[in-house]
């Protein structure tokens, strides 16, 4: 049963069959797939966007990310978001992984990429985006994660994946 159908998410309540023959109810948030990109410049600095996120009631430091448009590949989305949000283009884009961020209730799949060989592009914010661009060294980023200045899951996952590459 559909409870809500909005601009970005759809909430449904579904009755499911359990392996033991029983039944139960599950709530599922159907949200779109998205790409996120960890931009690393030639000096080893990582580029971020800082923007207000209403769901947590604060400004958040995170990597560029966005919903995959119809007909767009995850790679194309990552490159588009990189340029739109921080004004950079990538000479090299490497897939890190794909994942489900909140697998217990959300359907959307995230795709993480590493962007290197950065060059100048042109920012193009959405009408509802108010973004500040910031860059930090890897050691600063690690400290910001441990001090909980960086709280975004996709960002933390991308940084730690990058550190192990």
Short description, anyone?
This protein has 165 residues and is an alpha+beta fold.
List keywords for this structure.
165 residues, alpha+beta, three-stranded antiparallel beta sheet, 20% helix, 42% strand, globular
Total number of β-strand segments? 10
Rg on CA atoms, Å: 18 Å
Our count of helices gives: 3
Listing every helix as H and every strand as E from the N terminus to the C terminus, the arrangement reads EEEEEEEHEEEHH
Query: Please, what is the average pLDDT?
Result: 96
Percentage beta strand? 35-45%
Write the layout of secondary structure elements.
Elements (H helix, E strand, L loop, with lengths): L1 E4 L4 E8 L5 E8 L3 E6 L6 E8 L4 E5 L2 E3 L6 H13 L1 E12 L10 E11 L11 E5 L1 H9 L6 H11 L2
Parallel strand pairs: 4-9
Antiparallel strand pairs: 1-2, 2-3, 4-7, 5-6, 5-10, 8-9
Describe this structure in words.
- The protein is of the alpha+beta class.
- Helix content is 20%, strand content 42%.
- The chain contains three helices and ten strands, in the order βββββββαβββαα.
- The protein has a four-stranded mixed β-sheet, with helices on both faces. It has a three-stranded antiparallel β-sheet with strand order 1-2-3, with no helix packed on it. It has a three-stranded antiparallel β-sheet with strand order 6-5-10.
- A hairpin with a 4-residue loop joins strand 1 and strand 2.
